[in-house]
């Protein structure tokens, strides 16, 4: 941790000493947007000029329009693109937590990543956590700790290691409150369960059935207003629904610490995470960044984004049985809804069909590419699964690129190469988990 803090402090000094504008590039999921939001807050407090660009994935072409006087900062991406970035010969900062697949010496690039100092960036610190360490070195920014937790929860990380330290800091400084209960987003139980995809229930998306369910339990209102007995009854009833199909780790993690943000604005940390992720994936990253800056004037529009996004996912999941295919060592599904690939993969592996790794493929006709999201479970990882390596090698063999974490990775491959890609990935996974 000390070495990571030292690297973060070096990044903060570089930002402080740089006289030009700071240009932040970040990923369009909850972790990437929270990471960018943390830096936006810190830079605003320093009265620094900055610009933010939110991306679906790293593209070298984004650097073509960067001004010469800008300091470039990548959040939640860049660790596997150091070789390409090195060629630009200019100062850059990479704040990431994905597994770097090669070691590249680049003097102009300050690379801050927990994996580089022996920490597990897939479990104990996300990109927003790395950004928070930099922001904390820039000034009194401990009040931004809740955004680091938003990113960690968005990436399904555990509250261990550095995440635990940030969580404790947020609690000690009165930024969050912690209770125990069911991990459900939304403003209230009806809203949270209706649009719930993680966890995904058999009645997700069906408001009338959820009303009936809650009426039978004689429970309603905000999740943080429930008594201990009401929370126990709710947890038991929902867990019974999950045990039919969900993975052991999904069931185990469903009940635990739930976080509320003190002060004005969004109270439920999981709800804020959902809002950031939904807006980012729906191409409304400006709304998400506004929420990170506590601009509540965008709340109604952000909630509409969330509802539309969740409905897309639930619609795909309800139609799952006819479209889920199985290979020898993996299962896969092709969809046409943009921006929901990762969420569908996560819901399938955690709550519907957890026995084999899932790959969800989505064609981007405009770019003539197939976007792939791959997900595993803790058990599959224990058995030897490494989706980061699988996605990287399988994609490269068909002219694409990929990478990420052992349990959650992605790839981009040329259209028409998906069958060969699946064949290679299936064979690789078979060797890993046997």
TrEMBL record:
Residues 332-429 form the DHHA1 domain. One of its GO terms (molecular function) is nucleic acid binding. InterPro entries: DDH_dom, DHH_sf, DHHA1_dom, SSDNA_exonuclease_RecJ. It comes from the Archaea. Residues 22-136 form the DDH domain. It holds the Pfam family DHHA1. This is DHH family phosphoesterase. It comes from Candidatus Methanolliviera hydrocarbonicum.
């Amino acid at each position: 941790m000390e070495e990571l803090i030292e690297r973060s402090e070096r990044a903060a000094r570089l930002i402080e000493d740089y006289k030009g504008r700071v240009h932040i590039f970040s990923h369009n999921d909850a972790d990437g947007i929270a990471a960018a939001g943390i830096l936006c807050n810190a830079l605003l407090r320093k009265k620094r000029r900055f610009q933010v660009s939110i991306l679906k994935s790293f593209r070298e072409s984004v650097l073509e329009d960067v001004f010469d006087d800008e300091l470039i900062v990548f959040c939640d991406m860049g660790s596997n693109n150091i070789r390409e970035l090195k060629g630009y010969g200019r100062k850059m900062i990479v704040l990431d937590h994905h597994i770097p697949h090669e070691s590249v010496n680049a003097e102009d690039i300050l690379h801050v990543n927990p994996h580089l100092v022996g920490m597990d960036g897939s479990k104990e610190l996300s990109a927003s956590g790395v950004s928070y360490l930099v922001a904390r070195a820039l000034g009194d920014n401990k009040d931004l700790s809740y955004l680091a937790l938003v990113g960690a929860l968005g990436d399904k990380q555990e509250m261990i290691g550095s995440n635990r330290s940030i969580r404790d800091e947020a609690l000690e400084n009165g930024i969050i409150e912690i209770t125990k209960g069911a991990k459900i987003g939304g403003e209230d139980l009806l809203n949270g369960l209706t649009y719930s995809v993680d966890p995904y229930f058999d009645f997700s998306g069906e408001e009338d059935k959820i009303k009936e369910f809650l009426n039978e339990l004689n429970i309603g209102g905000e999740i943080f207003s429930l008594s201990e007995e009401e929370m126990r009854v709710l947890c038991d009833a929902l867990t019974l629904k999950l045990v039919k199909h969900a993975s052991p780790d999904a069931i185990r993690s469903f009940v635990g610490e739930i976080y509320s943000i003190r002060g004005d604005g969004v109270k439920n940390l999981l709800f804020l995470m959902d809002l950031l992720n939904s807006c980012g994936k729906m191409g409304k990253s400006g709304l998400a960044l506004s929420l990170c800056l506590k601009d509540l004037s965008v709340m109604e529009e952000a909630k509409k984004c969330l509802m539309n996004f969740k409905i897309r996912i639930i619609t795909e999941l309800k139609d799952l049985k006819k479209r889920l295919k199985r290979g020898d060592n993996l299962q896969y599904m092709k969809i046409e809804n943009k921006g929901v690939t990762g969420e569908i993969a996560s819901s399938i592996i955690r709550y519907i069909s957890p026995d084999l790794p899932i790959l969800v493929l989505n064609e981007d006709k405009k770019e003539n590419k197939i976007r792939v999201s791959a997900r595993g479970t803790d058990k599959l990882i224990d058995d030897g699964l490494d989706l980061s390596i699988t996605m990287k090698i399988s994609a490269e063999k068909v002219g694409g690129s990929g990478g990420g974490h052992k349990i959650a990775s992605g790839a981009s491959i040329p259209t028409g190469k998906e069958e060969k890609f699946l064949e290679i990935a299936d064979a690789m996974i078979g060797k890993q988990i046997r």
